[in-house]
Each structure stands twice: as C-alpha cells, then as structure tokens.
Amino acid sequence: MHAPMADNSVEALSKRLLALPTAVVCDVLAAMGFPDQVLASHIRAVGPTRSFAGPAICLRGGEGPEPDAPPNKSKPVFETDRNITQGSIAVIATGGHKIGAVIGGNVALAWKVRGCAGVVTDGGIRDAQECNEMGLPVFAAFVGPMSNKGLWAFREIGAAVTLPGQRGNPVPVQPGDIVHGDLDGAVIIPSALAAQVVRDAEVLEGMEAKIRADLERGDDREVVYGRHDRFGHIKKHG
After folding, report:
1. What residue spans define the domains of the chain?
2. What 3-state DSSP class applies to 206?
3. Cα 108 to Cα 128: distance, rounded to the nearest angstrom
C-alpha cells in the first residue's frame, strides 16, 4: 500500500510554515543556494505580530498623483481590494517612496475582510493601531500620519516586484511566491522551491530541538554541533 501523497498546495505549505521560524527557513534557503531571499531589516513588524505565511499578491506603485481609471474599470487603488484572496499576503513595492503612507486603516480593513493574512511593504503605513487591533500583521519601512494623496499611488497589480534585501541585493517577488514573516523578519520563498524548503526546514527544526535539549543538559556546544549534520539533508540547486 502506497503512503499518501504530501499536500504541497500553497495553502498547506503556508500552514506548515507557521510552525517554523524564519531563521530556520533562511538557513535552508541559503544551504540550497538561495541566500538573497531575506528582506532588509528596516522592513519590520509594525507593533506586536504573530507568524504569518501565504502567497504573494504583488502590487506596485510610484510617485505622483493617482492615475485615472481605465475605461470601464476602477482606479488601481480600488482594484487592489478585488485581487485580495483568502490567506494572501499583499506585497507593495513603492519604488522608493519615503513620505506618505501607502495604506491606512480603511485599506487594511477592506483587505482583512477579504482574507488578507498580512501586508509587507518597503514603504510606510499609517493607522498602525487600527491594523494591530484588527489583527492584520504588517511589515513596513516606517509608520507616519501623512497621507500619500498627490504624492504616490498604486499603478500596477499582479506583476513581479522587487523589495530591498538584507544582503544588499534586491529580492524578487513573483505572484504566488510564499511570504513568511515573524518577529525576526520576512523571507520570500519562490513557489517552485516551496515544497522542498518546507520539508527540509521541518527536518532542520527537528534537529534544532535536539540541539537545544543537549545544550539545556549542559553539554559542550562544540560537541553538540558535532553530533548533528544540520544541513546534510539539503539538496543544493545550481
């Protein structure tokens, strides 16, 4: 009798990621040959947050006034709501805007009601208390009270974006890539690698639990590390 196939859907993988620290996921990606998947440390949790993971909904904006609505369509700022799906993470690339907030409480609420599981942006947000109270995890570069009206606007939905990376290289984000965040920071897991990343991270986290147990007993750390081949199970790509 064959063993049941693992559920490698994005939903299932995202749920498993909630039990894994981003630090372990980051180590696995680096061992696989993908060291540039961690977002820059200035993109931080706004207030207390819990671990989140889900597929990216990519949104891009730019400097200047809001564009007119295309024929028979709404402006991009309203179309963003209609692209949010259950469990998704809104990833907003601002093009370097550092003045006004790219979202506030009303946008956050509209997205939360539609199932948004988190927001990650290299720009700023406002109404931080409202976001915290509605339980929407938000990672942003800054918090401030200023609106983006006339300064910046959403312009594109569903195209790949890039965000600043911790190693100095931009981190590409494709629609459907898994965004995983916790109090340490945020990491982007390419969708094609997600099943291996989660599987290998679960193995590594199991080893880390054994290492912690050894250290709690007072074992020498060098000896403990020698007992565990932490990265031997990880297949390198490229």
Report:
1. 10-191, 197-227
2. helix
3. 10
Q: Which helix (H) or strand (E) covers residue 197, if one does?
A: helix 194-216
User: pTM higher than 0.90, yes or no?
Assistant: yes
Q: Tell me the C-alpha distance between 218 and 75, whole Å.
A: 61
Distance CA 183, CA 139 (A): 10
Asked if 116 and 84 count as a contact pair (C-beta separation under 8 A), the reply is yes
Q: Which residue has the tokens 């990265």?
A: 231
As a whole number of angstroms, the distance between CA 71 and CA 183 comes to: 43
pLDDT of the chain, 238 residues: tens digit per residue: 454 557 889 999 999 999 999 999 999 999 999 999 999 999 999 988 889 999 999 999 999 999 888 888 899 999 999 999 999 999 999 999 999 999 999 999 999 999 999 999 999 999 999 999 999 999 999 999 999 999 999 999 999 999 999 999 999 999 999 999 999 999 999 999 999 999 999 999 998 999 999 999 999 999 999 988 888 898 888 6
Architecture of domain 10-191: 3-Layer(bba) Sandwich (3.50)
Give me the DSSP letters along 120-134: EESSEE--HHHHHHT
Ramachandran angles phi, psi of 3, nearest 5°:
-70, 150
